[in-house]
Recover the amino acids of this structure.
């Protein structure tokens, strides 16, 4: 470690490209949004002198801050470590040995692609909550690629104790890709990426701003100029059911189009290559990302599908790694998930899984089902809650003096909801199971979002047996299995009979290397 620090300290300092200052303008504007809004308010009120003073002061302060940040930021690339110096008044000096780097990625936004710049991110397995430990935002693309290859060479040489060269690593990625997606498959993936959450968001937007902007497809005013000359227009405008059907259709189309656009922007040109010690993934239309992932950092595999995708034989293959990819921002994909194949068949996933020492489940895999208590305990848990909702609704109707036939509404709606939730839970139970074979544990869960987790036993960090009050009554327990890089307790085998859960826990612990 001391030699690594010394080599980085002795290397000549480098700075970000001067054009990186352009990328900081947007961040500076977001940080000063309050002052900009105040300046705009003064300008709207006709107080131009004060508006110019406020906005000019913000521009000068932001420009000085950006220049000082750029001037005080530098990095040094040593033989086996990189040192990053940052901070204007409070100085930070961070040294990252190359053998601790779990992931090196290159990303280019539209502006960076235009100017030939890139952002390099280095992550280590010790990053808190998966946050990156080193980021160089705004260096020349050729320098970014050279740095990425240099880190990979040094890391590979350290891990394998044999000399490696940038030429050999580059030659590997110029071969045929391990997996790739053309535009047709990207668009197909977009059709599957319709989200119920997005649908709910669009519905809420139409109800809140629809009247103001006349974009509420559940109102006659939206359809009148569109269908007034159509033969169906009179029927649609005259029936509330027709408006409801038309409104839902508009939201579905908007959701599908949004899913296709978002997917195309993210997955365009998707290519996965096998390298000497792992994988390299490139994707993106406007923002292009280039990520390398060592196989030794991968802890588990995850196959994701659903009832519609499964009908067509499509799967997504992800891996849980010591380093993630989303940046740790709220609402983004969990950082411990690297997508190696967003839409693939079992035959295409098999060689990817084999590259990390895993095998995909086959048709003859013997799954051990979980207890029926998975369904009965759930119904026992939500039953009283549904009953309380029905009683509260009936009480409200009685107090309002509603007609007798209206009193049938709450029990019917609540009963229907109870049956629907029970049916969905039953379908989930039918698709939940596990199997322990060779040196791996397979866990299958879910119905609408079907997931199959492939965990090598050597990567199991801990096994926790969990049981709540409802589970104790029904004699069932949950096993929470932790792997390095994953969420604590994030991999579970639910609703096992207590004795079976205890035996499986002992079996997993006894087979640790």
């Amino acid at each position: 470690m001391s030699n690594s620090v010394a080599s980085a300290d002795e290397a000549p300092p480098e700075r970000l490209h001067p054009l990186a200052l352009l990328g900081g303008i947007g961040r500076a504007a977001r940080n000063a949004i309050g002052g900009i809004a105040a300046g705009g308010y003064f300008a709207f009120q006709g107080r131009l002198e004060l508006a110019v003073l406020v906005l000019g002061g913000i521009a000068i302060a932001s420009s000085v801050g950006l220049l000082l940040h750029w001037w005080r930021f530098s990095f040094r690339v040593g033989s086996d470590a990189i040192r990053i110096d940052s901070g204007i008044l409070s100085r930070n000096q961070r040294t990252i040995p190359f053998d601790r780097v779990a992931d090196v990625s290159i990303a280019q936004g539209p502006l960076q692609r235009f100017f030939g710049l890139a952002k390099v991110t280095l992550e280590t397995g010790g990053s808190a909550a998966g946050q990156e430990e080193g980021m160089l935002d705004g260096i020349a693309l050729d320098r970014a690629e050279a740095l990425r290859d240099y880190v990979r060479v040094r890391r590979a040489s350290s891990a394998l104790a044999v000399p490696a060269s940038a030429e050999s690593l580059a030659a590997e990625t110029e071969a045929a890709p391990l997996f790739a997606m053309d535009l047709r498959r990207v668009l197909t993936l977009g059709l599957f990426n319709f989200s119920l959450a997005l649908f709910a968001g669009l519905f809420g937007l139409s109800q809140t701003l629809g009247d103001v902007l006349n974009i509420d497809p559940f109102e006659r005013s939206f359809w009148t100029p569109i269908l007034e000359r159509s033969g169906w227009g009179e029927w649609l405008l005259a029936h509330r059911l027709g408006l409801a059907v038309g409104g839902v259709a508009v939201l579905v189309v908007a959701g599908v189009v949004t899913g296709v656009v978002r997917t195309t922007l993210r997955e365009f040109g998707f290519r996965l290559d096998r390298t000497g010690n792992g994988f390299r993934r490139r994707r993106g239309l406007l923002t292009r990302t280039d990520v390398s992932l060592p196989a030794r950092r991968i802890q588990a595999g995850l196959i994701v599908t659903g009832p519609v995708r499964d009908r067509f034989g499509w799967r997504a293959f992800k891996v849980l790694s010591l380093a993630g990819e989303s940046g740790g921002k709220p609402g983004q994909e969990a950082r411990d998930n690297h997508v190696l194949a967003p839409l693939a068949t079992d035959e295409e996933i098999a060689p990817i899984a084999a590259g990390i020492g895993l095998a995909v489940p086959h048709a003859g895999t013997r799954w051990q089902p979980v207890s029926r208590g998975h369904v009965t305990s759930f119904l026992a848990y939500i039953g009283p809650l549904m009953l309380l909702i029905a009683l509260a609704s009936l009480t409200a109707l009685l107090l309002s003096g509603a007609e007798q036939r209206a009193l049938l509404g709450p029990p019917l709606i609540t009963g229907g909801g109870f049956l629907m939730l029970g049916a969905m839970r039953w379908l989930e139970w039918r698709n939940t199971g596990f199997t322990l074979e060779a040196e791996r544990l397979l866990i299958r869960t879910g119905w609408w979002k079907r997931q199959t987790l492939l965990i090598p036993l050597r990567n199991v960090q801990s096994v926790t047996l969990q049981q709540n009050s409802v589970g104790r009554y029904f004699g069932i327990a949950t096993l929470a299995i932790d792997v390095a890089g994953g969420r604590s307790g994030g991999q579970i085998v639910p609703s096992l009979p207590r004795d079976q859960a205890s035996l499986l826990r002992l079996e997993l612990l006894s087979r640790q290397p």
Notes: Confidence is low (pLDDT under 50) at residues 127-131, 160-164, 325-336. The radius of gyration is 28 Å.
